Amino acid sequence: MLYLWLKAFHIISIVCWFAGLFYLPRLFVYHAQSEDSVSKERFSLMERKLYRGIMGPAMIATLIFGGWLLYLAPGFLSQGWMHAKLTLVFLLIGYHHMCGAQVKRFARGENTRSHVFYRWFNEVPVLFLIAIVILVVVKPF
């Protein structure tokens, strides 16, 4: 029963984390398009609160619950799909931290990228989500 509760909280954490990963780059798009200082300050505040208040805790919860699940079912670590999933999660953590670095750049007024870049940057977590869900559900290898 503990395993199922952990799995439920792991999924909830993933949903919260991905909500932030989808929304923060969208804020970057709007921030890159803004021209007045009031809008830029508002977007910086929104980005910081989203990153620190939602995304960070959700990522940590995702990793804790996922690690706990692996502790309870270590046999998954011998399966290829889990190795691929964990690799993607590792890369997703890198993407998360890239977002954090960008939040800081925007806050300092040092953004050098256009809104078009962020529109493409915004699609990256979608690819991760698709791949991770397919690996977990289909277990292709």
From TrEMBL:
Heme binds at residues 10, 85. It is a multi-pass membrane protein. It catalyses: protoporphyrinogen IX + 3 A = protoporphyrin IX + 3 AH2. Binds 1 heme b (iron(II)-protoporphyrin IX) group per subunit. Its cofactor is heme b. The keyword Zinc does not apply. It is found in: Cell membrane. It comes from the Bacteria. The chain crosses the membrane at residues 6-29, 50-70, 76-95, 116-138. InterPro entries: HemJ-like. Its main location: membrane. Its EC number is 1.3.99.-. Belongs to the HemJ family. Homodimer. Catalyzes the oxidation of protoporphyrinogen IX to protoporphyrin IX. This is Protoporphyrinogen IX oxidase. It comes from Pseudomonas saxonica.
